[in-house]
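Schema walk-through. Below, the input block comes first and the output block second. Nothing else is stored per chain. Lengths vary across the set, and this one has 268 residues.
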Amino acid sequence: LTVPAISKAAAANAAIFDGLLSAFSAGTLLSCAFFLLLFESTHLIGEGWTGEVDVLWRWGTMVLAGFVLPAVIDVSVHASSGEGAKTDENAITEATGEPRSKARLIGAVLLGDFMHNLCDGFFLGAAFKGCGAGFGWGVALGTILHELPQELADYTVLTGKGVGMSPARALLLNFLSGLSVIIGVLAMNLSDVANPSVGLLLAFGGGVYVYIAAVECMPKVHRLQLSAKHNALCLLAFVVGTVIIGLILLDHEHCAAGGHAHGHGHGH
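--- output ---
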């Protein structure tokens, strides 16, 4: 219910608000990827393969596969919905408002959000299952913090000129598409997945998070062409995002066999 209120509050300073949220999201995602997912995945992958090369090529392949996944989903969703490559805000505001155009736009937004949240659910399930509750909640925090700008963007599109949906209906559809994260978590925790496979999935999730932060969030800050003062605030928002996730490392334990963890003083 806070989404409409935040959306209204940001209307007067939309560019600045967008920049701050994007920079903050980039900070949380990159720190979550580098401090947690990518590093810890190597411990779990190492349980299945002992050779350095065997571990490295599998780890690197999954990171790169995760990096391209959002682009693949974006292309696939918009191709199937008939929206083509015109996905920016200008294209959205130029929508005709015809029923078929509205249906395509709604389908693109909700299907994209469904797939995004489903993948987040897989990564969260893998984090809890492979590394325990402490690690899992750290990944959950990074996921929640970066979801806010995404949900704001979806809400803006659904209630904008191209669709004209009521706020209540837009919130309901956003909520329903967001339930896919639960499907992903349950699928991971109810299935018998070995630790090396969990490690591969964590590496894959790290690649996804790096893409969202480096390709979508930070470039948006530069495209906004804000003043030096506001760019400095965006940089501060980025730092705050990294620190929030980085604080988890103060009491962090490394992943170990059986979904438990070892403290910093233990061997790996």
